[in-house]
């Protein structure tokens, strides 16, 4: 049994390096989900609820992101799909482009190096633009003004669930 506390929280400031891809590969899906649950409820939840003055460790957040990707990949069966010779790269590329369009993201270079070469090339060629801080701040401020001006719970739910609405928040 993997001791989550010992691995992720071995120092007061949290881990200084993310868990290696080799270690994450060796974990069961149950253990990966336990890690995700523990980080989300015990660390991210504390910061979100302002029960602590400590910042989250960048290494812990990188591990958390890696775990989320693992679970997503396993649930979609991408590992099997990518290794399958009968599956066309065009089909995979179409799925990846759709994912990148709907959930644009970039990978850290040390994480990207662990991907198969075809995925490395795809993400290098399809890197998303990072929003500048000023533009992002304006979007967050505008979203907050819109949201804070709503008076009823029904209006607030409608705001967050409406089609084409893309609220911006900083965590």
UniProtKB/TrEMBL annotation:
GO biological process: positive regulation of gene expression; regulation of transcription by RNA polymerase II
The keyword tRNA-binding is assigned to this record: no
Protein name: Mediator of RNA polymerase II transcription subunit 23
Predominant location: nucleus
Species this chain originates from: Stichopus japonicus
Subcellular location: Nucleus
UniProt KW Transcription regulation keyword: yes
Protein origin, superkingdom: Eukaryota
Alphabetical keyword list: Nucleus, Transcription, Transcription regulation
Family: Belongs to the Mediator complex subunit 23 family.
Gene Ontology CC, one term: transcription regulator complex
